[in-house]
Amino acid sequence: MPRKIPAILATSLFATLLTAGMASAHAHLETAMPADGAKLTAAPNSISITLTENIEPAFSHLTLTAASGDLVPLTNEKADGKALSAMPSSTLSPGAYTVEWQILSVDGHKTSGSFGFTVEP
Ligand SMILES: [Cu+2]
């Protein structure tokens, strides 16, 4: 029944694509506030990101580092669905900052990344 072969191949291809799609569904950065590369005229009250997948709050964190290399303490870290946010514990002085994010998505995969912004004098 040669006519059936294409259907079987199509089904197999579909299954392969579906599996590949699921495997790559871990959380990537969707949005960042402040935006990567932002030059701010006022210190931000909070740092927030959204991911492309829901995240596990207990294993998802932000860190903020000043240009000097000093860690800036963050408070009030909150994770909700695809969003993660935290507040600098004190007003950021002018300078360049790096935000690093490390998250565990609900599918069990860890992802991480970083972005930067500047608070202008
Ligand atoms: Cu994943």
Write structural notes for this entry.
The chain is of the alpha+beta class and 121 residues long. It has a single domain, classed as Immunoglobulin-like, CATH 2.60.40.1220. It has one helix spanning 4-23; strands at residues 29-33, 38-40, 47-51, 61-66, 71-72, 74-80, 83-88, 95-104, 110-119. The strands form two sheets. It has a five-stranded mixed beta sheet with strand order 2-9-8-4-5, with no helix packed on it. It binds copper (II) ion. Copper (II) ion binds next to loops.
Uncertain stretches of 5 or more adjacent residues: none
- Sketch the major β-sheet: 5 strands, mixed
Say which molecules are bound, naming each kind only once: copper (II) ion
DSSP helix fraction: 10-25%
Rounded radius of gyration (Å): 20 Å
Q: Give the number of DSSP strands.
A: 9
Structural class: alpha+beta
In the sheet with the most strands, the strands line up as 2-9-8-4-5
CATH class: Mainly Beta
- Any guess at the CATH architecture? Sandwich
The sequence of SSEs as H and E is HEEEEEEEEE
Tally of individual domains: 1
* Percent of residues in β-strands: 35-45%
**Gap between N and C termini:** 76 Å
Assign the CATH topology.
Immunoglobulin-like
Number of helices: 1
Mean pLDDT: 88
General shape: elongated
